[in-house]
Amino acid sequence: MKTIKISAIVVLCASTTGIAFADDSIVLTIPNTNVKSVEVPSELPPNRTKEDLIFDRETNKSYLIPAVEIIGFDFLLNQFNRRYSGSSDYDSNLSTIWHNLHSSWKDDKDPFKINQLGHPYQGSMYHSFARSAGLNYWESLGYTVAGSAFWEIAGEKVPPSKNDMISTGFGGSFLGEALFRMSNLVLEKGGSSPSFWRETGAAMISPATGFNRYALSDRFDSVFASNDATYYSRLQVGISNSISGNPGTSDEIKRNDAQLDFLLGYGLPGRPGYSYTRPFDYFVFQSTASSVNVLENVMTSGLLVGTDYQIGDNYRGLWGLYGSYDYISPQTFRISSTALSLGTTGQLWLSESIALQGTVMGGIGYAAVGTNNGKTEQDYHYGVAPQGLAALRIIFGKQASIDITGREYFVSDVDNTKTNGHDNIIRADIAFTYRVYKKNAISLKYLWNQRDATFPGLGDKKQSTGTLGIYYTFLGHDGFGETDWR
Predict the structure, then answer these.
(1) What region holds the DUF3943 domain (predicted)?
(2) What are phi and psi for residue 229, nearest 5 degrees?
(3) Which fold has domain 231-475?
(4) Where are the domains of the chain?
(5) 388-431: per-residue pLDDT in tens?
(6) Rounded to two decimals, what is the model's pTM?
(7) H runs (alpha helix) in 229-366
(8) Which residues are CB-neighbours of 239 under 8 A, at least 6 positions away?
């Protein structure tokens, strides 16, 4: 299929449209309804009551509208690709549809960015069409998987691919839910009547949500309530300098790289009264735009099923099953993974002013991995990937923080055409952020990426990069996301 690019504006919009600013608002809790909370501004519009602003999403949801939208979206995408892709893969008809219905599913070899970035973004559109039509997460996941299957069978004439079903159906759902939540958080902070700029920014984050709000505003203009989730956001702009590395089979490493990085942690543990009853009531989203390769990463992980817990007076956390989608492309290699993991996230107060926040996860995913700038865009392979993540933030009051994150992926030879081989990938970073004035801060970050690939006939091939960067950081709050329940 044709590449669907995620513009760098996605990285910017959550901050520039005001996700960092909180309004003086009241959270109204409504018992015995399907809506747990609706944000009501402290000053209501003329001739409006609180009851007027309560919108029951369950009553107004539609199963038909997102189905029609997904089919229409796939039809338009197919027509666009027929005319402009230069490939005959999209010349589908009744004969090819019938053939695909009776074909076995396989791995395809579209270019890496199409399969591992374009397809998940396409899936996020399916998911957001359903979510913004009032459907819950699990219903929307079903629509995303169905939309992916419809495209594989009817959108292309080539046989359907199982890797696309995973990246579009499940990866798209994980990415789509994060984008849907961020879009609604931008709107929610605008009160009962979000401004034009908030509406525009929210639509940039989640276009399908923006479309339904505009085209069907009488029915789908309610804002999905965050239930006053505690969140931490930051936007970084700076220069990263390569200080070490081994390009391996890739091109020479470029020394300087301008970067734009956005991170949001949503539903941080510890706030009294906040519960994790809905999928992605806790999630982390990060994306980095790069002058070297456009997108260096898009990563999101969220709690699908779990609960919170408390140990003593100073520690609160949550645990359960997480879903994640990762796309990582430093200068030397590239990897993408859609995974399920068991894990926990928590916060511990060490003293009156020092807090620790951390996450540990371990699970299994389906990953694609290959070299950057290889012989062809199809120079990559798939495999089942056990993987893990450990992240720690040390918060020194309102003044500074140290962030340490490590990820590891072991891409095995299970479902790998190059048998008896594997890839071991490690990504680790450490960053120090110092708040200079209000929400303005300076950050120093060291990032290490390494791929160790072992295959018969090729031996042991290593690729690595080590970069040191300095960034201007705009914080979403005057602090670093710590929750003080004491």
Answers:
(1) 105-207
(2) -65, 140
(3) Porin (2.40.160)
(4) 9-220, 231-475
(5) 999 999 999 999 999 999 999 999 877 665 567 889 999 999 99
(6) 0.86
(7) none
(8) 256, 257, 258, 259, 469, 470
